[in-house]
Amino acid sequence: MANHKVILCNTLIILCSIFLTTEAMPPQSPIQCDQNGCNLYNSYGVWNDRKTCRVAAAVYPATEEELRLAVANASKNKLKVKVVSRFSHTIPKLACPTAGINETSMLISTQRYASEINVDVANMVVTVDAGVGIRALIDAVEEKGLSLAAAPYWEGVSVGGLISTGAHGSSWWGNGGAVHDHVVGVRLIVAAKETEGFAKVVNLNRSNALFNAAKVSLGMLGVISKVTLSLEPGFKRSITLNYTNDDGTLEYEFMDHAKNYEFGDIQWYPSRHTVVYRYDNRVPLSISGDGVNDFVGFQSNFAIIAKTVRASEKAAEDTRNTKAKCLLASSFLAYKKLIANGLKNNNLIFTGYPVIGHQGKMQTSGSCLYSPESRADTACAWDPRIKGLFFYETTAIFPPNKFSDFVKDVKKLRDLVESENFCGVDIYNGFLIRFIKGSEAYLGQSEDSVVVDFNYYRADEASTPRLNQDVWEEVEQMAFFKHGAKPHWAKNRNVAFLDVQVKYPRFSKFLEAKKGFDPLNLFSSEWSDEILMFGKSSDIGAVKEEGCGLEGLCICSEDRHCSPGNGYFCASGLVYSEARVCRYSSSSKS
Question: What is the pLDDT of residues 243-254, one digit of tens each?
Answer without folding.
Answer: 999 999 999 999
